[in-house]
Design goal:
The longest helix is centred in the first third of the chain and has 19 residues. 43% of the residues lie in helices and 31% in strands. It contains 4 helices and 5 strands; from the N terminus they run βαααββαββ. Helix 1 packs across helix 3. The chain is α+β, with helices and mostly antiparallel strands and 127 residues long. It has a single domain, classed as 4'-phosphopantetheinyl transferase domain (Ribosomal Protein L22, Chain A).
Length: 127
């Protein structure tokens, strides 16, 4: 059963500007070490970081919190299976919020072009 759904779109240029203006401080505030290790070596790293930014925003919407200080950026982690399929790992307050809402799994899909990155998250009930 679907408990929550969220979607987000972000301009890649916006993420690129934050990376240029704030460097590692921005990356470490928003992304986990595993996310940085996945995105940073890529040729078009900003597109990959933007996809994960959009995914985190979509997850926040699926949780019903939106962007709030109560759920930290790194409490939502977007990882990738060897097959290339992205998946969500919840930590800290995001995990607590998810459990309180009755969400057991969050499905995620993301896509990006040179200009935009988008993601959709679907929260499924604990089974």
């Amino acid at each position: 059963m679907i408990v929550g759904i969220g979607t987000d779109i972000v301009e890649v240029e916006r993420i690129q500007k934050m990376m240029s203006d704030h460097g590692d401080h921005f990356l470490q505030r928003v992304f986990t070490a595993a996310e940085i290790a996945h995105c940073q070596p890529r040729r078009e790293a900003a597109q990959h970081f933007a996809g994960r930014w959009a995914a985190k925003e979509a997850v926040m919407k699926a949780l019903g919190t939106g962007f709030t200080p109560e759920v930290g950026w790194t409490d939502i982690e977007i990882l990738t299976h060897p097959s290339g399929q992205p998946y969500v790992v919840m930590h800290g307050t995001a995990r607590t919020c998810s459990e309180n809402k009755g969400i057991g799994t969050i499905l995620i899909t993301l896509s990006h072009t040179r200009t935009y990155a988008t993601a959709t998250a679907i929260g499924l009930a604990i089974s």
